[in-house]
Amino acid sequence: MSQTLPAKNIVLVHGAFADGSSWSKVIPLLLAKGYKVTSVQNPLTSFQEDVAATKRAIAAQDGPVILVGHSYGGVVITEAGNDPKVVGLVYAAAFAPDAGQSIVDITKPYPKPIGLDKVVPQADGFLLLSADGIETGFAQDLSKEEKALLTAVQPQTSGAIFVAQPTQAAWHTKPSWYIVASNDHMIAPEHEAAMAKQLKATTTTLPSSHVVMLSHPKEVAKVIEDAAAGAK
What we know:
Elements: E1 9-13, H1 26-32, E2 36-40, H2 47-59, E3 65-70, H3 73-80, E4 86-92, H4 103-107, E5 119-121, E6 126-129, H5 131-138, H6 144-153, E7 157-158, E8 176-181, H7 189-199, E9 202-206, H8 212-215, H9 217-230
Parallel strand pairs: 1-2, 1-3, 3-4, 4-8, 8-9
Antiparallel strand pairs: 5-6, 6-7
């Protein structure tokens, strides 16, 4: 497969209120197709440290990379995707700001999703999504057991990431794919559609909660495979 695809290395970047296990259903599907898969463990302590963790993962790959971001992970891949190894970007229900734009900036024109009311401040400027927030705003289409697992592994997220701004937006120079989650309660679905249009991304819309890679793993894996085959 590596001889026929421009990219056999897939680097997955999780978002806020989640960790690398949020890709647990997609990873086996990609491995079964012969891809080398790396799920980054963002510390979620600052945008700079999350970008650094992602760049380290890219550096460890042995060739061209498809970089995939979920939610806030989209901001990370927008910056880290400028790496020369990265040949394509996949945004899964993800933020895709331009240079000098933050999540706070780009969400202002859109309705406030209900999940954002379930964010609970913690010590030192960190945040957690409440268990009810995960059940009703983050992953409402998953099983009770899956929601409990997401709650158990949830890391605290620095509030500072929501005002962080990429210095250069990789999607201006790299081909992009976008997965819109039409039942998203963390990012307004119409905002996702607008970002996909701005990116001129190859777009797939799925009837999913925010965690599209857990509720529709086969479809998400297919988009990533399409990116690997189509990136130039």
